[in-house]
Amino acid sequence: xxxxxxxxxxxxxxxxSVKWIGKCPGCGEWNSFVEERQATAPAPRxxxxxxxxxxxxxxxxxxxxxxxxxxxSSETNRVLGGGIVPGSLVLIGGDPGIGKSTLLLQLSxxxxxxxxxxxxxxxxxxxxxxxLRAERLGTIHPNLYVLSETDMETALLLVEKQKPDLLIVDxxxxxxxxxxxxxxxxxxxxxxxxxxxxxxxxxxxxxxxIVGHVTKEGNLAGPRLLEHMVDxxxxxxxxxxxxxxxxxxxxxxxxxxxxxxxxxxxxxxxxEVLNPSEMFLSERSEQAPGSAVVTAMEGSRPLLLxxxxxIAPTSFGTPxxxxxxxxxxxxxxxxxxxxxxxxxxxQASDAYVNLAGGVRVDEPAIDLxxxxxxxxxxxxxxxxxxxxxxxxxxxxxxxxxxxxLEGRIREAEKLGFERCIVPARSxxxxxxxxxxxxxxxxxxxxxxxxx
Length: 451
Prior knowledge:
By secondary structure, the protein is an alpha/beta fold. It has helices at 74-80, 100-112, 127-137, 152-162, 187-204, 225-229, 276-280, 328-342, 367-379, 405-414, 443-450, and strands at residues 3-10, 16-17, 33-40, 89-94, 118-122, 144-148, 166-170, 207-213, 232-238, 244-252, 260-266, 269-272, 291-298, 301-313, 321-324, 349-355, 387-389, 392-393, 399-400, 419-423, 436-440. 26% of the residues lie in helices and 27% in strands. The longest helix is centred in the middle third of the chain and has 18 residues, at 187-204.
C-alpha cells in the first residue's frame, strides 16, 4: 500500500520542507509555504536495456533535420528560431491581460489556415467565451478546435484521439492532475501537468504551447524547474498604457535567445510591427535639447531608439538620478565620467534619462548616445537631427569599440540619417556609401564634434 507523505512547498520557488517555515530560504518570500500530501508509490524496477536503451558513440547517432512549420507570423518565427518545431514544448509567460491569449488565438488561426489541425485547451474561459473573442478577432476556422477542460488526464486522452499538429494549453495554472491532491496552480500541480504535457509532446510529436502567469517580481509563477522542463521560454511584455507589445525569448533550444518580436495592440488584435526603428522615432522632436538617437542590437536586428535626458537644478542636498529603460548603474557611471573627464558640473543637478517608447535596453553600445543627450541638456543645446551615436564609454573617458557596427550603420542610412559618430577602433576601412561615418577616440572629442 502506498504511503502518504506530508510536506510543505513554497508556492513561489518550489522549495521543499518537512515543516512549515515563515520565510522561504530559497526565495526569501514570507508565508508562501503550503502543506501538500503526496502518495509515494513503490520504486519502479530498473530497465534491462533494449533497442531504445543503447550506449552509442556520438558520431554514430543518426542526424535528424528539424522540420519546422511556419507560425504564420514572421515576427513570431524570428523569436522561435525559424518556425515551430514538432514535438517542442514552449512556455509563454506574461502579466495578466497583456495579450497572451490574443496572441495564441491569432497564431492558432494562422496555423490552421495552412491546413494543419490546432487544438486550443482553455482552462480559464468557456468555449462560448472563446468563440466570442475569436469572432471579434476574425479567427474562426474549421481546423481550429476548442476544448474547455481542466482535468489534464481527460484532456490528454482527447488529444491522443485528435492528434493535432499544434496544441495550446491556456493556462498551466488552471489545469490539474487528479493523482495530485493539491489545488490547481500549486507547485506540485504545475510540475506534474507540465511533465504530462512534455511526455505527450515528445511521444506524439505534437508541438505544444502552454501559457504561464508571472509573479509580482516578473518571474514565471511556479518552480524554476518548470523553465528547465520546456524547450523554449518566451516572455510577452509591455506596458498597459502603451499599445506596443514585445515577445522575447529567455530560453530557446532551437534558436537564438537574442531575437524579439514587436506587435501593436489594436481593436482587431495584435498587428506586427515590421519596422520598429521607424516606430520608435516617429514622435521625436529634433528641436528639443537633450534628445539623441542610438542603435541597439536585438539579436540580428538593429533598432534605432531615441534617448531623452533632462538636467535640472536640484532642490535638495542630494541630486536625484532616475533612469527609465536604461541601466541605472550605467547612467550613474556616465554621469561620473562626464563630470570627471569632460568637466561638466552635474553635482548640483538632477538627472533624468529615458528611452522613448517604453523599450528596455541593457547594451553598453548606447552609452555614447546617453552621454550626448545629458551633455546637450546640461548646455541647453540641440543635437543635429541627422546624427546617430553608437559606442561604449570607459571610465577613463575613451569610446570603446562595439560589435556589428556595419549593420547598425546600414539601418541608420535606411532611415535617412546622414552622419554616424562611432568608435574609431571599430572602423576597418569599410565603405559605408552615402552616409558619413566619423570615428572618435574619446568622449570629449565626440562632444566637440556634435555640440
